[in-house]
Amino acid sequence: MLIDTHCHLDASEFNPDRSDVIARAAQAGVGAIVIPSVARSNFDAVRALAHSFEGGTYALGIHPMAVPQADDSDLDVLAAQIEQSMDDPRFVAIGEIGLDYFVVELCTPPMRERQEHFYRAQLDLAQRHGLPVLLHVRRSQDVLLKHLRRRPPIGGIAHAFNGSFQQAEQFIDLGFALGLGGAMTFERALQIRRLAAQLPMSALVLETDAPDIPPAWLGRDGRDDPLARRNEPAEVAGIACELAALRAMPPEAIAQQCAANAGRVLPRLLRSLPGLADIRP
Questions:
Q1: 3-state secondary structure (DSSP) of residue 40
Q2: pLDDT tens track of the chain, all 281 residues?
Q3: What is the DSSP letter of 281?
Q4: Which of 22, 64, 94, 245 is least crowded, fewest Cβ atoms below 10 Å from its Cβ?
């Protein structure tokens, strides 16, 4: 089973053909897709979408890039939505949350503190409910780790990880898997490819971040069609093959191990995908 552990399937880029995108993913062997929310405005959308097809699951959270438009009442709404979703087998994590120190507008001292406020509040919710988190990690690894170390282990997935080996090992020690996607497929992405090849296989999961971070093979040959360049969950099959090549392993073994890893760090996946419990790495 292939699992796309991070896909923004509710994004407007999929409006023209979302049902076809879901069908192509299933045909490619993708048995589950985790759809994270990014703001109060799409909590209901990701839940409804996850319930609309077999293998759909969702997470609820406020993305750091949504923080400038958010206020503290959004955290109250999030808390209520999480409470209401705890009996929903399709609800698997809190996310996408984290810190972004790449976007210039988010790096002023007041905005960095605002991001940390939302991050801390959402870690509180994760701790209160015993839920894992889906972390947005852009030039913010050390600060994310600082706040995680101050708490009992929470765990989850460090999405689109692109840090150092030392930082990777610290996330792993705190119960996190590292998400690998389209960035890994570019030959020039030397650091990510080294991480993918050398970190313990038990620490890795597959993702697309669709419609963003398309793999290297999309948009080649001078194609100008936006749909040809758009990432989608079916591409996780090719990403698994790329990881297999880097590690000199069969793609089937990569898919099996990464699915088992996803089930370990997102244990509520077992409620919506009972067959995942039978997968042995």
A1: helix
A2: 899 999 999 999 999 999 999 999 999 999 999 999 999 999 999 999 999 999 999 999 999 999 999 999 999 999 999 999 999 999 999 999 999 999 889 999 999 999 999 999 999 999 999 999 999 999 999 999 999 999 999 999 999 999 999 999 999 999 999 999 999 999 999 999 999 999 999 999 999 999 999 999 996 554 556 666 899 999 999 999 999 999 999 999 999 999 999 999 999 998 888 777 777 66
A3: -
A4: 245
For residue 261, list its beta bridge partners.
none
Strands 91-100 and 133-138 come out as parallel
Residue type, 90: R
Phi, psi values for residue 150, rounded to 5°: -80, 0
Distance CA 16, CA 224 (A): 17
Nearest to 41 by CA among 12, 20, 19: 12
Range of the domain at 151: 2-278
CB atoms closer than 10 angstroms to residue 104: 8
On the 0-12 / 13-18 / 19+ scale of CB atoms within 10 A, 127 is middle
- Does the bond joining 211 to the residue before it have cis omega, within 30 degrees of 0? yes
Instruction: Give me the CATH number covering residue 193.
Output: 3.20.20.140
Both structure tokens of 237 = 């099959």
Neighbouring C-beta atoms of residue 181, cutoff 10 Å: 29
Number of domains the chain contains: 1
